[in-house]
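Structure tokens please, single chain.
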Amino acid sequence: MIRAAVLPAIGGPLRVQDIELPDPGPAQVRVRLAAAGVCHSDLSLSDGTLRQPVPAVLGHEGAGTVTAVGDGVTGVAPGDAVVLNWAPSCGTCHYCGLGEPWLCARAGDAAATPYATLAADGSALYPGLGTAAFADETVVPAHAVLPLPDGVPLTDGALLGCAVLTGYGAVHHSARVRPGESVAVFGIGGVGLAVLQAARVAGAGTIVAVDVSPGKEELARAAGATEFVLTGAPGATRESGQTDATGATGATGGGDPAKRIRALTGGHGADVAIECVGRADTIRAAWSATRRGGRTTVVGIGGKDQQVTFSALELFYFGRTLSGCVYGNSDPARDLPVVAEHIRAGRFDLSAMVTERIGLDGIPAAFDAMLAGRGGRALVVF
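Here you go.
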């Protein structure tokens, strides 16, 4: 019998229950989980921000050991250590053909297909984001696992499945941070900590961490931040303290970090701002903290009710680039070996991102901590 954290209904509480997991079918792999990270996307699935059929077993950032494979599987074998890939590319759709596998039109197919049943009543269960990592074991499509690179610890390697690839890719593929550039990172959770480390690896100069929690400063500086800005909930203001194209100046408030970031970057603003929260006010604040001609990258997943507004004049005047970023615009097969080399060389520290190691019963409290802005990444260890 397999223990799993089950979401019975959108908005409902997670329940640790026994489930029945079938043997892997053709082109499927069964994995015994070593660890699974508690990501904000799991919270977004549970509250309906992201679509997910229910009842479901959540969890998508995981690593473990292959225990069985179905017919036709040749890439991995029982005993292999693997990382789960919640957004596997099909290789044949329009976006994969463009060389953009992170936008694959079929990446979410597995999440809409039942994969297991509840032991209590036999009702069908869906795998959260196709992986269902909040369980002792899971069954996934063969192309949803990647070999864990040599020299990467199996437990901490779970973070490679989402936070690390997202953060690394946001810096190197989306924002394309160049050596010496200044970077502002909004939201110092699991992904934000990965972004800070990736910015350091990229050779960024001034690296400003922005968060509402003073307890994040030590974590942020250990991950590579050279400066820390404590902020309240920033509002959508104009360029605080800076004359805009109309000659007006925006007001500055205690919660608006843009003026402080400009003061830390020669009065201009950050070359790159990366938003890891997914709220309209922080997206707007990240945009306002970016220099003229700079790049603002949005990594955080916000709800459709989070509306961000810009004037036509400021879009012209500031000449910034604003871009979304899915899974770090990463190709896991290409990027995992590169990140692994940084880990082996000591340039990227997975364990420093983990602030709590918990069991399945601890996931609801980890959700509450995320909502309250506490800690980095909670890791479920099996």
